């Protein structure tokens, strides 16, 4: 008899599990129309805002002094991205924890902000928290009708010529700016465990300008918009993001760019590999 009573909770839990799974599946199906409408709204906002900024940027570049145009462009993109991130959170498409980036507003001097690059929209979330960032970007973005005009107005630095990129970035930092740079150079590859091997540009700029690097550790429950992700492929909503600001890393006096890059690589791997609810999962190979 005692054994029978011990068996009853087990049978009850086995009966409840399918019911709970069915309820969860029904809830997801009910959310599909809302998610589709919210996603459409996000694309519409991005398209309209991007084209409007491009339309007004070129006249402003011609009419305003360069320093004024850059301040206006950087502030404009910051506000547009901030509204976009708030929309994503309000519609429950994304749950993003960005609070640690608030500390950058109190940064006493110029700094390189160096996140790992998990997704196509990483820069949007970081810039949404920075009122006047300088961004290093792919040169091809300058020709993008949705992003090119704003990027030119803001004085973002293209990566087409590495020597010029390093020179322009170091000069911007010496003038007191905050530079956003993805040290991987591109989005993390699908087969990378934690992060791609870092390029040397971040170290060269930090050494030339004599400024610290603040690593930023981005984690997510999805690989949405990673390198190779098809734009038509729907992620599972809500997308959960954690963006954590690391401690400053300063190049040592006699440290080579190669050694500094290796030190940064180790910092990223140690942090991204630690236990975390959004730690990157190993992707199983396709059959």
Question: Which helices and strands appear, and what pairs or packs with what?
Answer:
Layout (H helix, E strand, L loop, with lengths): L1 H62 L2 H25 L3 E4 L13 E5 L6 H6 L5 E5 L10 H7 L2 E2 L3 H13 L3 E3 L20 H9 L3 E8 L18 E7 L11 H16 L15
Parallel strand pairs: 1-7, 2-5, 2-6, 3-4, 3-5
Antiparallel strand pairs: 6-7
Helix pairs in contact: 1-2, 1-4, 2-4, 5-6, 6-7
Describe the structure concisely for a colleague.
The protein is α/β, with parallel strands linked by helices and 287 residues long.
Jot down its keywords.
287 residues, alpha/beta, Glycerol-3-phosphate (1)-acyltransferase, 7 helices
Tell me the strand order in the biggest sheet: 1-7-6-2-5-3-4
CATH class: Alpha Beta
The profile of the biggest β sheet is: 7 strands, mixed
Quickly give the structural class.
alpha/beta
Q: Which fold name fills CATH's third level, the topology?
A: Glycerol-3-phosphate (1)-acyltransferase
Give the ordered list of helices and strands: HHEEHEHEHEHEEH
The best one-word shape is: globular
When the domains are counted, the total is 1
**Percent helix range:** 40-55%
Number of helices: 7
User: What is the mean pLDDT?
Assistant: 88
| Topology, number of strands | 7
CATH architecture: 3-Layer(aba) Sandwich
What is the percentage of strand-forming residues?
5-15%
Low-confidence stretches: none
Termini separation (Å)? 49 Å
- Rg from C-alpha positions? 22 Å
């Amino acid at each position: 008899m005692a054994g029978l009573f011990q068996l009853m909770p087990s049978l009850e839990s086995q009966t409840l599990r399918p019911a709970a799974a069915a309820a969860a599946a029904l809830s997801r199906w009910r959310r599909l129309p809302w998610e589709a409408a919210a996603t459409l709204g996000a694309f519409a906002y991005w398209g309209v805002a991007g084209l409007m900024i491009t339309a007004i940027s070129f006249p402003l570049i011609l009419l305003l002094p360069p320093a004024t145009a850059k301040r206006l462009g950087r502030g404009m993109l910051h506000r547009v991205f901030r509204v976009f991130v708030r929309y994503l959170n309000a519609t429950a498409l994304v749950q993003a924890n960005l609070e640690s980036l608030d500390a950058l507003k109190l940064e006493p001097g110029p700094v390189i902000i160096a996140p790992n690059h998990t997704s196509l929209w990483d820069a949007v979330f970081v810039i949404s928290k920075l009122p006047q960032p300088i961004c290093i970007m792919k040169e091809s973005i300058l020709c993008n009708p949705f992003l090119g005009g704003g990027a030119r107005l803001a004085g973002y630095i293209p990566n087409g010529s590495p020597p010029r990129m390093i020179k322009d970035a170091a000069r911007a930092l010496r003038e007191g700016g905050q530079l956003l740079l993805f040290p991987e150079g591109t989005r993390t590859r699908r087969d990378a465990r934690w992060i791609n091997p870092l390029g040397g540009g971040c170290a060269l700029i930090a050494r030339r300008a004599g400024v610290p690097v603040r690593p930023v550790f981005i984690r997510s429950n999805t690989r949405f918009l990673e390198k190779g992700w098809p734009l038509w492929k729907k992620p599972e909503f809500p997308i959960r993001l954690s963006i954590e600001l690391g401690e400053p890393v300063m190049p040592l006096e006699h440290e080579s760019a190669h050694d500094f890059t290796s030190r940064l690589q180790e910092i990223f791997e140690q942090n991204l590999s630690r236990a975390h609810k959004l730690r990157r999962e190993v992707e199983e190979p396709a059959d």
